[in-house]
Design a protein that fits this description.
- The protein is α/β, with parallel strands linked by helices.
- It contains 25 helices and 30 strands.
- The strands form 8 sheets. Strands 22-25-26-27-30-29-28 form a 7-stranded mixed barrel.
């Protein structure tokens, strides 16, 4: 079935006129990203927007939410006064299923354990006209690619890997739940006009190299923050040679370089995927406007004129890559990886190899990995590492089972996990003899921050393509290079692995018995959404209080975070996912993974009221009980990683008033603004060093809080001296109103109340 075909027809009908009007206004040829951005303005533009400077209001075509973030997003939406969502929206139950023993048992356990949450999400989706994908249906990004993504569209999703849909030529952007509420309520969605990074792909891949290696190399070039505030647009004959799902893999991991999103131009590979997934109607519509779904011809010949930065990669020369550990931008070509393992004393023995996830679970990925698994059988090789497979959707799982690929994995001892995120987000009950023992794992996932997959700081996690992961699983050792090295068979012979082979799509077509979709009620006004007042999983939201109208003084330092501080460290996933619908309970994980700069410990900070050291959340609760606000100080790219708005809502709920850092990741900064928090950055980054453990803070200039005007933070030291620090902010007039009102939701609620 084709979802929302009338909406798609409307987008394509208007596209040619909007593109031509934009071309005239800008007075030059257009990139693909520019065509889609200007075609999705909430109101027509009369003059060009400045990249990296202008705040722009957009009207996305749709919204997608995963179950962990949908809870808070929909708890917010139900307070805003709407009877139904204004744009097509979906909820996908993929985050709450813990990988433990295998797909069947784990899914049954999840349905029982999370029954209350699933019933809430099902009923609230039913009430407000939202499509609901049941637990086991698949991972949000794979399901969106198979059912909803379309070339030239724009969507937002409450997950940082929403850009996966760029594999079908869509601008798909990860956001916090409050942004999703705006769009579902029919309001404009605000984004700073992105800069544009062009990646020109020439040549064609072969052998062991895959699409995953493109983004692993790009991550090494741009680092985890090199794409911040930018859309990455891939172009060139090399881009057209990649499968649609390969393109999606690249776009998915664009989140790891901080990119707003990534996108590929519409081509024959995308058309084939649309047809293969039952959307020939969409392909026909796209074919009719194909010239508007690709960059203008001049962009290909003079790319430096149209992009803020251009990177060129020759796919003929691209090696497979392995990235890690502890960060996805530490990039190693396979030819140099073994040496890096030895020189850095990383554990050589590979204990677990995991393939699948939202990043690499296509039919192409699985079939190429299965070709290596079959070689292990045919060549009489032992598989020396634990090996798991996570299908991205029930459509993929059913099809690979029909085609015998799951049976091949089973014969080498592979364990098939549920169609869910699982170990990729820490939902993994890992079996290990000593959790403190240094060990290595490798995945085809996207992130590998410390503790990300299994909660263990001792685990060295590496990221590679499914093919490389499978080859290393057979070898059981990180120093094995399948392109050059031999393996010993069970009877002592030396053999080499042949290059992997596979198929972009199944020759018999995709098949599925029950995809797991539940359509909403035609009229949801009579549907009841019940949240028990005694629940420890769900809690109705109370509005945050408005700003007092004065400068904030006497704020305590809660923590000075040292080094990388991701949203996983601000609001951990794993076992904490069960509290994503209960703000007070999940606030007990606030910043417990951040490293305190004064003692190099996690979850141990000084309580200025008692002089004693204790957990971060408990310390902040003590300040809140005493009516004292606080400040969190952080390092570079604070809040990188997942889109989870809980990392902004928890500090807000517990009484933190400001986050002062060297720099922010895009989504987290926006989430803080949406919740009425102060997101501030040092003008002089060296001022970070001036912050001492017993400091108190006065934030001066709020009574004249205006766009582009700096604020002053007076840092009062225990010895009676003080430092006056100038700080920047990126608030525009509307965002300042959010701060004054106590959060964006308070503004929305007020506006709808006036309209009635």
């Amino acid at each position: 079935m084709v979802f929302d075909i009338e909406m798609i027809k409307g987008v394509y009908a208007a596209l040619p006129g909007k593109v031509e009007a934009t071309r005239k206004m800008l007075g030059r040829p257009l990139t693909l990203a520019e065509k889609i951005l200007y075609a999705h303005l909430y109101a027509p533009a009369t003059s060009p927007f400045a990249r990296g400077k202008s705040y722009v209001e957009f009207a996305p075509d749709r919204v997608a939410m995963q179950d962990a973030t949908a809870q808070m997003a929909l708890l917010q939406f139900m307070t805003c006064g709407r009877d139904k969502v204004a744009v097509p929206s979906t909820v996908h139950c993929d985050h709450l299923i813990q990988a433990k023993t295998g797909a069947v048992a784990d899914l049954a356990t999840a349905k029982d354990t999370n029954k209350e949450v699933y019933e809430f999400l099902s009923s609230i989706s039913n009430k407000y006209g939202i499509g609901f994908w049941k637990p086991g249906a698949g991972i949000i990004h794979q399901v969106v690619l198979e059912n909803y993504a379309f070339p030239g569209g724009m969507m937002i999703g409450t997950d940082s890997h929403t850009p996966n849909a760029g594999g079908l030529g869509m601008l798909a952007i990860g956001v916090g739940g409050a942004d999703a509420v705006d769009v579902m309520a029919g309001l404009p969605w605000e984004l700073k006009m992105p800069k544009l990074i062009g990646v020109k792909l020439t040549g064609k891949m072969s052998g062991w190299t895959s699409a995953k290696d493109v983004i692993l190399k790009v991550a090494g070039i741009l680092t985890v923050k090199g794409g911040t505030g930018a859309i990455v647009e891939y172009f060139g004959e090399g881009a057209d040679s990649l499968s649609a799902t390969g393109k999606a893999t690249i776009c998915n991991m664009g989140a790891e370089i901080g990119a707003t999103c990534s996108v590929f131009a519409y081509d024959d590979k995308m058309a084939a995927y649309l047809k293969g997934t039952g959307r020939a109607d969409v392909a026909a519509l796209a074919d009719a406007v194909k010239e508007h779904l690709r960059p203008d011809p001049e962009v290909y010949t003079g790319s430096d004129k149209f992009y803020d930065q251009v990177i060129e990669i020759d796919l003929n020369e691209l090696e497979p890559y392995v990235n890690g550990p502890f960060t996805p931008d530490l990039a190693w070509p396979i030819s140099k990886f073994a040496q890096a393992v030895k020189e850095n004393n990383w554990p050589e023995k590979l204990e677990v190899a995991l393939i699948g996830s939202c990043t690499n679970s296509s039919y192409e990925d699985i079939s190429r990995s299965a070709s290596l698994a079959k070689q292990a059988i045919d060549k009489n090789l032992d598989v020396r590492s634990e090996f798991t497979i996570t299908p991205g959707s029930e459509l993929v799982r059913f099809t690979i089972e029909r085609d015998g690929l799951l049976d091949t994995f089973d014969k080498i001892g592979g364990v098939v996990l549920a169609n869910a995120c699982g170990p990729c987000i820490g939902q993994w009950a890992r079996h290990i003899d000593d959790p403190n023992r240094k060990n290595s794992i490798i995945t085809s996932f996207n992130r590998n921050f410390a503790k990300r997959n299994d909660g263990l700081a001792s685990t060295h996690a590496f990221v590679a393509s499914p093919e490389i992961v499978t080859a290393l699983a057979i070898a059981g050792n990180l120093t094995f290079n399948p392109l050059t090295d031999k393996l010993k068979t069970k009877d002592g012979k030396e053999v080499m692995l042949d290059e992997p082979t596979g198929y972009e799509m199944p020759s018999k077509g995709f098949a599925v018995e029950d995809a797991g979709y539940q359509a909403p009620a035609a009229d949801g006004r009579g549907v009841q959404v019940v949240v028990s007042p005694t629940s420890d999983r769900l809690e109705l939201l109370a509005p945050f209080s408005a700003w007092e109208g004065v400068d904030l003084k006497g704020l305590k330092l809660l923590i000075k975070a040292k080094g990388k501080c991701t949203t996983d460290q601000i609001s951990m996933a794993g076992p904490w996912l069960k509290y994503r619908g209960h703000l007070d309970n999940i606030s007990n994980n606030m910043l417990i993974g951040a490293v305190n700069a004064f003692n190099d410990k996690t979850d141990t900070v000084k309580n200025e009221l008692t002089g004693e050291y204790g957990p971060v959340p408990a310390t902040q609760r003590a300040y809140k009980a005493a009516g004292i606000g606080s400040v969190v100080v952080g390092d570079e790219n604070y809040g990188e990683g997942s889109s989870r708005e809980h990392a902004a809502m928890e500090p807000r709920h517990l009484g933190v008033r400001a986050i002062l850092v060297k720099s922010f990741a895009r989504i987290h900064e926006t989430n803080l603004k949406k919740q009425g928090m102060l997101a501030l950055t040092f003008v002089d980054k060296d001022d970070y060093e001036k912050i001492q453990e017993d400091d108190t803070f006065d934030i001066i200039g709020l009574t004249d809080f205006t766009p582009g005007k700096t604020l002053t933070v007076v840092v009062n030291h225990k010895n009676g001296t003080s430092d006056s620090i100038t700080v920047n902010h990126t608030y525009n007039e509307q965002q300042i109103e959010w701060f004054k009102a106590g959060g964006a939701l308070n503004v929305i609620r007020s506006e709808f109340a006036k309209a009635k």
